[in-house]
Amino acid sequence: IPGDGRCLFRSVAHGACLVSGKLPPNENLQQELADELRAR
């Protein structure tokens, strides 16, 4: 997970996918999910 200012949110998105039984998100999806979380 790149340290780009979104790393905390990327980590949360990555972990949420794994916990829910999904494959780890690719970098683009990780960024999208991180931005959604960050906007809340």
TrEMBL record:
Pfam families reported for this sequence: OTU
Q: Where is the OTU domain?
A: 1-40
Residues passing through the membrane, by range: none
**PROSITE patterns per record:** OTU
- This chain belongs to the protein called OTU domain-containing protein
- Write down the species: Nymphaea colorata
